[in-house]
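In this supplementary section we document a worked example of the pipeline. Step one takes a protein sequence of length 247 as its only input; no multiple sequence alignment statistics are reported here. Step two produces a three-dimensional model, which step three serialises into structure tokens for compact storage. The input and output of this example are shown verbatim.
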Amino acid sequence: MVKGVISILTAAAAQPTVKNFVLTSSSYACFWPKPNVEFDIGEDMWNKESVEKAYSLAETDPLKPWHIYAGHKVLVERAAWKFMKEEKPAFSMNAIMPNTTFGPILDPAQATSTAGMLKGLFEGNWAAFSGILPRKSSFTYIPLARVIDYNFTEWGVDVRDVGRLHMLALTSPSLSAGGVRMYAASEPFNTNDILQLFRKLYPGKTFLPDIEGLGRDLTHVDNKRAGELLGGWIKFEESIKANTENL
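The serialised model returned by step three reads:
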């Protein structure tokens, strides 16, 4: 993944017409979720914990694949900023760091990633939403909530806001100089919040009961810059509705 982003940046640098570059990063490049722990999340944070654990955890540890995922987000983005500093290409670069992304599905039959996981919860498949570890060597499919108790205790963001932030990162005069990281997140949630919204939006359908003992995301996210550029965030309820209304 690091080689891939450097390859793309190198190709862009060879084209004099390229003026701006936007990198899709991730909230996991900033921090590892910690339910019920209150702390500030700034645009300058790096998730060093996952980088260390991606290498150090035993192959049999069920969290290892998740830390590999999060750790590679850190390494890819840091490699991109290093390239910009050392190579000094003619274009500017900004990075967008989305958290859990919901919203309209282009093809409900082919829903993947978090939109597909939300579809699974909507259809009564709790395990599909809780996060399934990939099958690899001795690994088996294990719901994430069995090994870490946050079960999507994170911040949500609408895919349309994420898309608009990418365009703004490329075109906004206030970002033309580049060098900005923006956290894409509208409001915190957990699985029970989504189940309650399902019941509100679709009163004629039966959904899974609330899950006891879920934690809360108590982080204070610095999403001011992105929110001001957007003129406000799409509400979480609207995002969940758009994700499910055609299912």
